[in-house]
Amino acid sequence: MEPLSKNKYSVYLVKTGLILLISTLLFGLAGAIEYAFPGFWRNIFSFEKIRPLHVSSAVFWILTGATGSVLYYLQEHNNEELKFKNGVKFLFYIFALTMAAILISYCFGVFGGREYWEFHPYFAIPLTIGWILFIVLYLSNFKTLKNQPVYIWMWFTGALFFLFTYLESNLWIIPYFRDNLIKDMTIQWKSYGSLVGSWNLLVYGTSIYLMDKISGNKKYSYSNMAFGLYFLGLFNLMFNWGHHIYTLPTQPYVKHIAYIVSMTELFIFGRIIYLWKSSLDTAKKFAHYNSYQFFLASDIWVFLTLGLAIIMSIPALNIYMHGTHVIVAHTMGATIGINTMLLLAFAIDITGTGHKNIKLFRQVCLISNIALFFFWISLIIAGFIKAYWQFNEPNVAYGAMIGRLKPWFHLFLLTGTLVVIGLTIIAVYLIRSNKQEVSRY
To answer: In the chain, at which end, N or C, are there fewer CB atoms within 10 A of the end residue's CB?
Structure first.
């Protein structure tokens, strides 16, 4: 049978994500320099611009990488060309142009949004249109959910819930929600927690698809454990956001449910990867070696992130950690250690570099993850020092406390630089790779 040609715009979405990954890393490095050397370039590039540039680039990297991978693998799953090919083209241009415009607007000091979405609310319109188009493209390329593997369900519900929670995150624009502080903060933090759960379904579903592809069978995508991950992940995105609002005066049952379910999906996901990797023979590992080692790296970070998440989910401890660098460490572990490692595994497979330049990929992957570990540790220690100061040293000035954090900020900068160099090398290599045959659409 003649190989199936690939829609090049789904590949372009993945490569756009890799460009945004580089943007994330560089702006993150700029922020680390500002931490280690306050005021370093305050008059040129202030932290109020660096932070949204870094955060939005990271979110956009996950979204474009995930949507491109889903469309690419959906075509493989169906073993036929994507329907509405021009729709994929429009999706690429909507996302690429809107995200570029958002990052440029930050550089000129144009803000107006909230946290993850600090851009002007007008930009939410093309992003929403683009996501609706993604859902339409997805739904138009399969006929039924009956007897489908788990990743089809994960992609389907992840896409729908993301749209719902993204619209929810913009409710603050309406005065009815914005004028009530508790209601406003509850909806904001709830929607952001659910947004993460939504894109996790897209990323974890794609992971299961690629694990099946590497192993050569659909053992994992039809397994009880995989469907357990799916239902638990769905339950999590609906309810585990409650641990974000422990400090708000909301109903106690919401917090209790959140405490029970918080981060349990990571345990099952880690278990799936562990069982999968132990079942592969040497030939299959080698054929997809570069993707395989990034899977292994993500498995380690699932374990580390789960441990920190469990600690953070205890209300008595959460109140100390909230607003400190421990939260940043948790975010970095999940975003870089889990999501980025998995998305890189997809990109490696999509660009056809699964068994090429193995030595380069192995060395860069190892160095990047060792550096990321110490980067993560430095943030946790800095967070503990700040938490102790907040509750036990009311007479110590803020500047004095920051002085204690300086050694850890310097370690944070050093190890962060190594992470930036390593992952940028991988991203540039994958952007330049043209190994796959693609269709002209």
So the answer is: N
- Nearest Cα neighbor of 368 from 272, 300, 436 is 300
Query: Comparing 335 with 316, which gets the higher pLDDT?
Result: 335
Query: Rounded CA gap, 11 and 393, in Å?
Result: 53
Q: What is the pLDDT of residues 344-356, one digit of tens each?
A: 999 999 987 766 6
14 within some domain: no
How does residue 327 score in pLDDT terms, banded at 50, 70 and 90?
A: confident
Separation CA 152–CA 150 (nearest Å): 5
Residues 6+ apart with CB under 8 A from 98: 123, 126, 127, 130
Nearest to 319 by CA among 259, 256, 244: 244
Give me the number of domains the chain comprises.
1
In a domain, 419, yes or no: yes
Residue 129 confidence class, pLDDT cut points 50, 70, 90: very high
Kindly report, residue by residue over 354-405, the tens digit of the pLDDT: 666 778 888 999 999 999 999 999 999 998 888 888 888 878 887 888 888 8
Residue 361 lies in a domain: yes
**CA–CA distances in Å: residue 74 to residues 79, 291, 295:** 8, 19, 20
Q: Which domain holds residue 329?
A: 281-441
Which of 69, 230, 237 shows the shortest CA–CA distance to 138?
Answer: 69
